[in-house]
């Protein structure tokens, strides 16, 4: 079969492909999309078609594989007819997070070395108070006191009452909220 014959065969098999697609999916609109995808894939892969083989079988195989790939993909999708689910999804703008991070770093620089060290170990690195005390070679109570004073000073410097007031910036949450490997305390 020549290249021109293959191209003409693509056109000639359109009605057969559409009938097969309708039989597979039971929806003429979806079948039309499936045939269009099949033709696009076939056209883009014409160089892989081996002349002398069955063009019709090749096209039907592409259509069938496209249909089953679509079925697998649809199983993982969440139905959202009215767009309600999508409307609930949001991502905070990244520029606010970057500005917040700069503000936190600047405020951390204004803490005493002891407070900054304790807060970073407990808040940002997630060490338990006991572990942080061991690293700093001091009492657990001293670490707790340093972390508490550091959090209070940061809140004062940043002008916030709670980390949630500052914005959706993970470092802020870690430094201002996490204590001894868990939130609070």
Residue share in β-strands:
under 5%
How would you write the strand order of the largest sheet?
1-2
Question: What is the CA-CA span between the terminal residues?
Answer: 77 Å
By CATH, the topology of the largest domain is Arc Repressor Mutant, subunit A
Reading off the top of the CATH hierarchy, the class of the largest domain is best stated as: Mainly Alpha
The residue ranges in which pLDDT falls below 50 over 5 or more consecutive positions are 178-185
- What's the alpha carbon Rg, rounded to whole Å? 31 Å
Q: Bin the helical content.
A: over 70%
Number of helices: 11
Element pattern in H and E: HHHHHHHHHHHEE
Largest pleated sheet:
2 strands, antiparallel
- Indicate the CATH architecture of the largest domain: Orthogonal Bundle
Description:
The chain is an all-alpha fold and 185 residues long. It folds into 2 domains: 3-86, Orthogonal Bundle (Rna Polymerase Sigma Factor, Chain: A), CATH 1.10.1740; 95-183, Arc Repressor Mutant, subunit A. The chain is built from 11 helices and 2 strands. The chain has helices spanning 3-12, 14-25, 28-44, 55-76, 84-88, 94-108, 113-124, 129-136, 140-158, 163-166, 170-177; strands spanning 178-179, 182-183. The chain has a two-stranded antiparallel sheet with strand order 1-2. Strand 1 and strand 2 form a beta hairpin. Helix 3 (28-44) packs across helix 4. The termini are far apart. The model is unreliable at 178-185 (pLDDT under 50).
């Amino acid at each position: 079969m020549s290249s021109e014959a293959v191209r003409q065969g693509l056109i000639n098999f359109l009605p057969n492909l559409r009938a097969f697609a309708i039989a597979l999916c039971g929806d003429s609109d979806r079948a039309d999309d499936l045939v269009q995808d099949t033709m696009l894939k076939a056209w883009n892969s014409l160089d892989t078609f081996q002349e002398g083989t069955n063009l019709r079988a090749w096209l039907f195989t592409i259509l069938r594989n496209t249909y089953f790939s679509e079925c697998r993909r649809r199983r993982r999708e969440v139905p959202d007819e009215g767009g309600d689910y999508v409307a609930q999804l949001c991502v905070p703008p990244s520029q606010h997070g970057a500005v917040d991070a700069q503000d936190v770093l600047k405020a951390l620089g204004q803490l005493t070395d002891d407070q900054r060290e304790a807060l970073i170990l407990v808040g940002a690195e997630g060490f338990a108070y006991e572990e942080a005390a061991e690293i700093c070679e001091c009492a657990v109570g001293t670490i707790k006191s340093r972390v508490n004073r550091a959090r209070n000073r940061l809140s004062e410097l940043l002008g916030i009452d709670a980390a949630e007031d500052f914005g959706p910036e993970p470092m802020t949450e870690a430094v201002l909220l996490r204590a001894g490997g868990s939130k609070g305390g």
